[in-house]
Structures are given as structure tokens and as C-alpha cells.
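Exercise 7b. C-alpha cells:
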């Protein structure tokens, strides 16, 4: 039984380290840059015992090659006030859906063609 527990702990640590290195490698490959814009804040509840804490994630948009990408940054901020308007977005040139904003990977919510 002890061997199984040790193997499980080592596997969890190994997965965590691999995830960290993958994220770091992906961040380094994101060489494209563009300017994004803050849109709104998305409410997320966080359980703390019997209470629910209000947390907020900013939602931003950026445009690459006539396609607008809307992404959410999962940062769980304690307030819905974000004093940002324009932000720098780093994206993967081969797949602009993969992006980082302020060293945080964006979670893609939607895409659409630019109507300009």
C-alpha cells in the first residue's frame, strides 16, 4: 500500500512539473503581439467553507488577420474593477487562439470575423 501511495505522489509531482514546462515552452513560442481591449468582468464564485466569495475574471478581445478573439483570463480577482483599457497580447502565430496576456494564458470564449 505504501508503494502505491509513493507512486501516486511522484506521478502527481511529475505531472505538475511537466505542465509547468509545457506552459513555459508555449509562452516562449508566442512571438506574435497585438493590442487587446478589456470588455467586461465575468463573475466566478469561490467556495470558502459555507460561504461563497465573489471573484472576477477579466474578458478581453484582440484581433489577428481579420478575426476577433474573445478570451477570459482566469485570475480570480477580488474586485470587478480593472483599470485597463488596452493590453499587450502575445499569441502563437500558427494558432492565434493560443494567447497570453500579462503572463496569464487566455481561455478562448469565442471568435468571429471582423465586420469592418
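Sequence design result:
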Amino acid at each position: 500500500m505504501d508503494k502505491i501511495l509513493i507512486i501516486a505522489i511522484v506521478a502527481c509531482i511529475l505531472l505538475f512539473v511537466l505542465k509547468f514546462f509545457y506552459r513555459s515552452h508555449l509562452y516562449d513560442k508566442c512571438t506574435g503581439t497585438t493590442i487587446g481591449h478589456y470588455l467586461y468582468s465575468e463573475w466566478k464564485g469561490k467556495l470558502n467553507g459555507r460561504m461563497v466569495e465573489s471573484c472576477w475574471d477579466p474578458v478581453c478581445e484582440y484581433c489577428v488577420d481579420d478575426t476577433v478573439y474573445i478570451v477570459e483570463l482566469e485570475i480570480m480577482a477580488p474586485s470587478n474593477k480593472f483599470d485597463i483599457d488596452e493590453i499587450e497580447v502575445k499569441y502563437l502565430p500558427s494558432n492565434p487562439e493560443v494567447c497570453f496576456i500579462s503572463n496569464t494564458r487566455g481561455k478562448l470564449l469565442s471568435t468571429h470575423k471582423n465586420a469592418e
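Instructor comment: The chain has a mean pLDDT of 86. The radius of gyration is 18 Å.
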